[in-house]
Amino acid sequence: MNFSYSDKVVELQKKLTEFMEEYIYPNEQLYHDQIDKNDPFSNIPPIMEELKEKAKQAGLWNLFLPESEYGAGLTNLEYAPLCEIMGRVHFAPEVFNCAAPDTGNMEVLVRYGTEEDKEKWLKPLLNGEIRSCFSMTEPDVASSDATNIQASIVRDGDEYVINGTKWWSSGAGDPRCKIAIVMGKNDPTAPKHEQQSMILVPLDSPGVTIKRVTTVFGYDHAPHGHAEIEYNNVRVPASNMLWGEGKGFAIAQGRLGPGRIHHCMRTIGAAERALELLCKRVQERTAFGKKIAEQGVVQEWIAEARIDIEQARLLTLKAAYMMDTVGNKEAKGEIAMIKVVAPNMALKVIDRAIQAFGAAGVSQDTPLAASWANIRTLRLADGPDEVHKRAIARYELKKYR
Ligand SMILES: Cc1cc2nc3c(=O)[nH]c(=O)nc-3n(C[C@H](O)[C@H](O)[C@H](O)COP(=O)(O)OP(=O)(O)OC[C@H]3O[C@@H](n4cnc5c(N)ncnc54)[C@H](O)[C@@H]3O)c2cc1C
């Protein structure tokens, strides 16, 4: 394994860092100020579209999509350090059209969409004109075990009829969100992992109702939003079925691999930013006669944070390298490991940064509180820690059977 960055990646890192410094950090507050406080899901902060245009012009657009004709032609290993930089500010990935859940959904459309799907949905997603959501989790069943999913997708002539209630469909609060990839059962009698399918459902279809958006520790994540959606006798053309009936699990394996590792890359960026803020703050303030930075305990936090970030980054790069060389399926152990390591590592670093800031750390005056709340969800979203650990233990036990 050679993890040194190629000239192409170093150049993109430099461009991206400069872009962040010139346009993203100076507009962090403006982005929040431009969200309509009375109706936060009604508008997109105008600064977002301005920044997207600038990113497109700078060639910093669709950097994901490894080795696909539609993206920037980067491998997962090349994308990792760039995704990390974007992760330093929660809304930055959207500026570069590299935000979840669109990236995972676009990968699905590239792999399993028909030419018509690509024209209708992939093209506007790649252009950043619309957004998408992924509707799998349901309120009534333990959705960390996706075989529990109950929504039904039933063939009726040239159409499929979809019924079910989903929640935590991230991004569906956004007025630009036009398409959902919905997971549901088309054959409850088939073998366990062949009962589920994924199908494209336009959100303006009759029978689709957004019931509410759920909050994360009180944050509404507007205008993105995590929506509860009712699908009531929704009819879509049979051609909207992705890959084929019963392929839901097979698609999920492909989709969740890249999606998970992108989260980890961004999470490392969030941890780096927290450590940077911590280091600056403790050198500015004095308590009990010396700089807070001179306290041994604070130096230990800093040293541990640096060690933990480096370890997590190396495991992320290894997982990305394996995805590129042996494929997402063979890299599943490394993907599961980093999916547990990265959020837990970042939560520890951010928590210490919050502590170092004193009361300001829990307020809206730094990005730390929101970042902690955001990253805490990654111990649940895309599979809880325990489920990934169960998989890792199984791979390990299998070696000695
Ligand atoms: C911010 C956020 C965004 C999300 N975005 C999306 C999205 O866009 N689309 C979507 O479909 N879903 C989304 N989700 C949902 C997420 O994927 C699910 O919450 C997750 O899969 C867990 O399912 P559940 O909530 O039903 O928990 P349950 O399945 O009820 O599990 C509850 C707990 O049980 C424990 N547990 C489960 N299995 C095991 C085990 N084998 N061993 C030990 N303990 C276990 C774990 O501690 C787990 O947290 C999102 C969630 C959050 C918080």
From TrEMBL:
Domain of life: Bacteria
Signal peptide: none
Domain Acyl-CoA dehydrogenase/oxidase C-terminal: 246-394
Presence of keyword rRNA processing: no
GO cellular component: a single term: cytoplasm
Swiss-Prot/TrEMBL GO biological process terms: fatty acid beta-oxidation using acyl-CoA dehydrogenase
One Pfam family from the record: Acyl-CoA_dh_N
Family annotation (InterPro entries): Acyl-CoA_dehydrogenase (IPR050741), Acyl-CoA_Oxase/DH_mid-dom (IPR006091), Acyl-CoA_Oxase/DH_mid-dom_sf (IPR046373), AcylCo_DH-like_C (IPR036250), AcylCo_DH/oxidase_C (IPR009075), AcylCoA_DH/ox_N (IPR013786), AcylCoA_DH/ox_N_sf (IPR037069), AcylCoA_DH/oxidase_NM_dom_sf (IPR009100)
Gene Ontology MF annotations: acyl-CoA dehydrogenase activity; flavin adenine dinucleotide binding
Alphabetically ordered keywords of this record: FAD, Flavoprotein, Oxidoreductase
Cofactor(s) annotated in UniProt: FAD
Domain Acyl-CoA dehydrogenase/oxidase N-terminal: residue ranges: 10-129
Sequence similarity: Belongs to the acyl-CoA dehydrogenase family.
Subunit structure: Homodimer.
PANTHER family: ACYL-COA DEHYDROGENASE FAMILY MEMBER 11, MEDIUM-CHAIN SPECIFIC ACYL-COA DEHYDROGENASE, MITOCHONDRIAL-RELATED
Name of the molecule in the record: Acyl-CoA dehydrogenase
Originating species: Neobacillus rhizophilus
Top-level taxonomy: Bacteria, Bacillati, Bacillota, Bacilli, Bacillales
